[in-house]
Amino acid sequence: MVAWLLIKQIAVLFIIMLTGILIVKYGLVKAEDSRVLSVLTIYLVMPCVIIHAFQIDYSEKIKNGFLLAFASAILIHVVLLLLSGIVGKVIKLNLIEKTSLIYSNSGNFIIPLVLAILGEEWLIYASAYMVVQLIFFWTHGQSLMQSEKNFQWKKILCNVNLVSIMIGITIFFRGITLPSIINNAMSSVSAMVGPLSMIMLGMLVAGSNCDGLLRRKRTWLILALKMLIFPGIILVILKYTGIANLTPEGRTILLISLLATTTPSATMAVQMAQIFQKDELYAVQINIMTTLVCIITMPILIYLYQM
């Protein structure tokens, strides 16, 4: 059931992405104008989504579910780090490939999917995954790109999405209810996360050339690792280790964690490549290719998890 809903929702997102491609192809906007949508999504829409997700009544059940989601996210990232390390020794992964294999588009992609498929009451568990990924990305991910181990904790703690999550957690555990007018405004802004993210991605697709990338055998290997093999291993761990039995709704909570793992490579990897002057084009190409194939791979993996 969820797999079928996922197919339909991904199809909706891809149609929205197509509009982003068309407005660039017809000269209405330029591909680089997508940065405006990126800024809006990161600094306005996502914080509203996160804080609004925590506007639910506190209960031990939700607290335990959040802790399970948090712990499973840590486990997933540790496993992905180990897998990329092992594979990297065999096929000599470069920095862009390692970052793309480990980190997924868990914010822009998973939030609208969870919202559409499961409902906004489940977004709190998606936020738990985002907390963990942000910490790992701005420590390990940044050290990969910089080729050094000098973590900038200030950037981690001041990240707008992490600050929003901390605000949301505080509101949740203290039982604070925001005024309805503010809550309604945040709810309306939150609804834009899917359309804005996909239009932005469509604009990037229109401005990129992936023809040469498709002819490289290594591209298909990276795609297989990112979208099938690594998530498949995570699926087996989440499904057969009994972790889901730790809370009443553990199976659905872990489904959200798996969803986050099966999403395309992180757009943050592209942004980081730009900052540290790495192979930005390759990062964009991997991001686009993983996005295009996820409409097939994500439903398959979710179906296998639910069998």
Automatic annotation (TrEMBL):
Record's GO cellular component terms: plasma membrane
Major place of residence: membrane
Keywords for the protein's UniProt record, in alphabetical order: Cell membrane, Membrane, Transmembrane, Transmembrane helix, Transport
Membrane-spanning segments: 6-24, 36-54, 66-88, 100-118, 124-144, 156-176, 188-207, 219-240, 252-270, 282-305
Gene Ontology BP terms: transmembrane transport
InterPro entries: Mem_transp_PIN-like, Na+/solute_symporter_sf
Membrane topology according to the record: Multi-pass membrane protein
Location within or outside the cell: Cell membrane
Protein family (similarity comment): Belongs to the auxin efflux carrier (TC 2.A.69) family.
Entry protein name: Membrane transport protein
Organism lineage string: Bacteria, Bacillati, Bacillota, Clostridia, Lachnospirales
